[in-house]
Amino acid sequence: MNQKIEIRVIKPEETYPIRHLVLRPNQMLKNCVYPGDQDVSTFHLGAFYEGKLVGIASYYLEGNQEFKEETQYRLRGMATLTEYRGMEAGKQLIREAEKIMKNRGAELWWCNARSSASGFYEKLGLSVHGEVFDIDPIGPHKMMVRNL
């Protein structure tokens, strides 16, 4: 594990610049504000390297009817700045989030992962659920899931 990366809870507004730069560069900044960002059940994590925010992940208490578990979280807006990839920031963001979700009684978490990122999630124990689908204007995605 990379000891230089520090994971901590951040405010939703702190996620917007990285969401915009990495996930939605061709859209307006207002498209980086997601429904539920301010909900008390939502939490946002940041990965910091030498004090700089380099990665983000947001988790929403949101059930998916595809799964029977009562308490589910959804990951949205996970991103790491390109120049900081390979430092395990994403892995550490997920592992810390899983601890928080377990403490909150979650049984499962899921996400709509970009197809290009599905290998990353599979290495961390998520499984693909269903077929590839398209999210306009972002591109192909796979629903992925992990039991806690």
Tell me about this structure.
This protein is of the alpha+beta class and 148 residues long. 22% of the residues lie in helices and 39% in strands. The chain has helices at residues 12-23, 89-103, 118-123; strands at 5-10, 43-49, 52-61, 72-80, 108-114, 127-135, 139-147. It has a seven-stranded mixed beta sheet with strand order 1-2-3-4-5-7-6, sandwiched between helices. The longest helix is centred in the middle third of the chain and has 15 residues, at 89-103.
Helix content: 10-25%
Kindly report the spatial arrangement of strands forming the biggest sheet: 1-2-3-4-5-7-6
Label the overall shape. Answer: globular
Quantity of strands, as a count = 7
N-to-C span: 21 Å
Number of helices: 3
- Low confidence ranges: none
The average pLDDT is 94
Structural class: alpha+beta
* Rg calc: 14 Å
N-to-C SSE string, H for helix and E for strand: EHEEEHEHEE
Strand content: 35-45%
